[in-house]
Design goal:
By secondary structure, the protein is of the alpha+beta class. The chain is built from 19 helices and 36 strands.
Amino acid sequence: MKSSSRRSRQEAAESADPLTRLSPIRFGRAILGDLDEAERREWWLGNGRGAYASGTTALDLTRRYHGLLIAPIDPPLGRAVVLTKADATLNADGRQYPLFTNRWGGGSVAPSGYLLLESFHLEGTVPVWRFACGGRIVEERVWMEPGANTVYVAWRLDGGPDDSPATLSVSFTANGRDHHGETWMPGFNPELAAEGACLTVNVPSRFTLHIGGTGGSIDPRGDWYENFDLPVERERGLAERDAHRHVGDGSLPLTPGRLAGYAASVEGAPSVDLDAALARRHAWDRGVLERAIAADPIYADAPGWVMRLALATDLYVFARPLAGVPDGQSVVAGYPWFGDWGRDTMISLPGLCLATGRFDTARRILMTFARFVDRGMLPNMFPGAGDTADYNTVDAGLWFFEAWRAYVATTGDVAALREVFPLLADMVDWHVKGTRYGIGVDPADGLLHAGEPGVQLTWMDARVGDWVVTPRMGKPVEINALWYNALAAMAEMAEVAGKSGASYRDMAGHARDGFARFVMPGGAGLYDVIDGPDGADASLRPNQIFAVSLPASPLDPAQRRDVLRRCGAALVTSYGLRSLAPEDPHYRGVYRGGVVDRDGAYHQGPVWAWLLGPWAIAHYRVYGDAAAAQRWLEPIGDHLHDAGLGHVSEIYEGDTPHLPRGCPAQAWSVACVLEAWWRLENARRGTRPEVVAAR
C-alpha cells in the first residue's frame, strides 16, 4: 500500500509539472548515426540578454554561429563568439572514447564521436546526449543561466560505486570574433592563466572568460585548431573554414551518478554548483509554462506541440535597457543572424507575450519602441549602441497599432493606452500629411501609397546591391489592409481613452471604400499592388490574406471567400504560404546558392511560416469552424523535430518536400502559429472573446 501511495504521489507531481506536458523531442541511432541527419538538427539556447549557445546533435560545428557562449560583448546585440567548444574524451577501463565530433576541410571527420551516441533529447530547453562507451554510459548536458552570460557543460557517468574510476579530458577552444565575421588569427592573442580547475582567458579592454570546473585541473594552451569545415556556410555561399584558439585542457574526475563539468562566464568567476544551476534552468523553463497556464487555462490540456511553442517563445525576448527605460525589452527576430526589427517585433508580440501571459513584457516592449517613433514611423532595425535608427519600413508602424490594440483588448490596460494615445494620434497625422519615402494618404481614395526608387519598404524587402527584388511601389495590399485596421482600432481606442473616435471612423470608411479598388474581377482575389509605376500588379502573393485575417476587414464575406480560395489553391503548404504562386514565371521553388541567388529568391516562392497563423485565422473568419482552422497548424508540430529543435524555421523551399531554410529559429514563425492556435482555441471553447473578436 505504501509503495502504491508513493507512486500515486509521484504520478500526481509529474502530472502537475508542465515540463512533462511537452511533446518529446528525442532521437536514437537511426538519426544520430547518420551524420547528415544529426547535423541537420540543431539546438538553440538563450539567456534573455541576447547571448546564445548553439550546435548540432552531432556535437560538431557546421555554422560560424555555433558555439557554447556567444555573448553580447558590445551590448545590447554586439555578439561575439567567446567559448566555442568543450570537447570531452572519456578515459575508462584503459580506453578512450571521444564524446564529440569535428569536421575538417578536405572532407575528413575526426573524431566520429557521433557514432557513440545512443540518444539525444530535450529536457525542457536543455539538450541531453547519451553516449554508449563500451560498458559505460555517459550523459552530457548544456544549458545557460537565465539573465547571465554564463553557460554550463556537464557530464554524468552511469554506474555504481564498484565501477572502476573514470575521468574526462576536456579541450577548450575560444575565439573573440563577431559572430557574423571570420576569424583573423593574429588578432586573437588572449592572456591565459590557470589555477587548479579554473582558467581565465583575458582579452584586454574587451572581455575576460572565466572557466571553472567541479574538480581536477586545467592547463593553459595557446595553439590553434585550424581548418574547421562549415558546410552550412558553404551552402550559403560564404566562407566555409574557421579556426579557434585552443586555450586549455582540463582533466575532470567522474563519480557515477553525479554531475561533473564546467561553468563558463564573462561576468566573473561563476559558481560550479551544477545541480543548483540545472535546477534553476528547469525552474525557469517551468515558470514560462506555468505563467501561460495561469494567464489562460486552455493550456492546461493543450497538445504537447503547442506547449513546446509556448516554451520556445522565451528564446526571443531579451533585455534592452535604455536611458529612461532601464527595464526596456525587445525581440530577437531570429537566430542566428537577426537582431531586433520593428516589423518583426510588432508582428511577434501578441504570440510571444499576450498568448503566454507575459503582459508586463508586452508593455515594456511597446513602451521601448514608442521612444523611437519618429515622423510617425517605427524603425526597421533597432539601433545598436551609438547607431542611428533606420526607418525604411512602411508597415512596422502599422503593426504597432495592431500590437497596441491587441494588448489593450487582452489586458484592459487603459492607463497605458492613455499614456501612449497622443503618440498614436500623431502617427496617424504623419501618415495623413506624408512622411519619409513617399509614404502618405492619397486623398482621392483614402489609401496609403509608399515607395521610392531603390528602397524596399514592405516585409518583402530583399535587396542585392542596388537591385530591389520586390519594390512593390504604389499601394501594396497588405499595407492598406493594415492602414484600415489601424484606423478602425484608433476609433475604438480613442473612445476607451476617453476621446472621440469619429474622425478615425470617417477615415476608416474612406479607406474601406477605396480598398474596393484592390478587388480583381471574376472572384480572382486581390491585386498585390495598385497605382504602381506599371499600373496594377496581379501577381498571386500571400499579402492579400491580411485583408481577411486582421480584426478589421475592408472586404465583404464573398470577397473574403475569394481571397481564401485563391490563396488556398496555389500558396498554402503544410508549413506556411508561398511568397509567389508556382505558375508565376518569376517563381523560385528552391532556396540555395550564394547571397545573390538566395536574396533573389527570398520572396519569389519560398514558404514563410509566419503566414500560417494569419491563414488559419482567415480560414476561421470565412468558415467559422475553429477546429478546422486549427488543423492547418498541426504540421508545425512535426517540424519541431527538424532544423531548430523545438522552434520553427524562417522559411521553407516552395517545392515539395519544403525543406527548411533561412534561420532555424524565427520569432514570428513561432509567435504567429502559437497566437493563431490560442485565438482559435478560445473561439472553439467560447472563452475570452476579446482575443478572437473581429470588426
